[in-house]
Design a protein that fits this description.
There is one protein chain. With about 160 residues, this protein is mostly helical. The protein is about 75% helix and about 0% strand. It is built from five helices and no strands. The longest helix has 29 residues. The protein is elongated.
Length: about 160
Amino acid sequence: TLKKFLMAIIFTLTCGVIVGLIFLSQTTNLTPEGTQLRFNGSEQSEVVDEFEVPEYYPKPVSEMLITTHNHIFGFTMMFFITGIIFYFNSIITGFWKTFFLVEPVLSVLVTFGSIWGIRFIHEDFVYLTIVSSSLIYISYFITAGISFYELAFKKQIME
């Protein structure tokens, strides 16, 4: 029963991650230019009508704060849950186990710190955002995949 519950949790989190990646693709085209445009806006997005919101506008501090707040809390909880499950895996051990437990949590801070860099310091922070967010998703899919595999096919959860 516990294994089925944990598998359901991993599956549901993975669905959420995939939806988030689809949203990211829709809003940035998964390109440096699209990501810069998402946070810095575009001069071509002039407001013609006072009730019309431009598609790409410079993100105000309040929107940056809520995005950062929600993602840091959400990702931290996601990696806390998957990290506890992954901790008991027997496929990856030693340095790499520690790496996959710690790295995504640190990359969350780097990713959401670097979007502030894009918005308020220099647009080249986008490359740090791309590298750190890629590490987040790679780490997630590796830890979730290994955890799900072991839950589905191993006889024992813990030894």
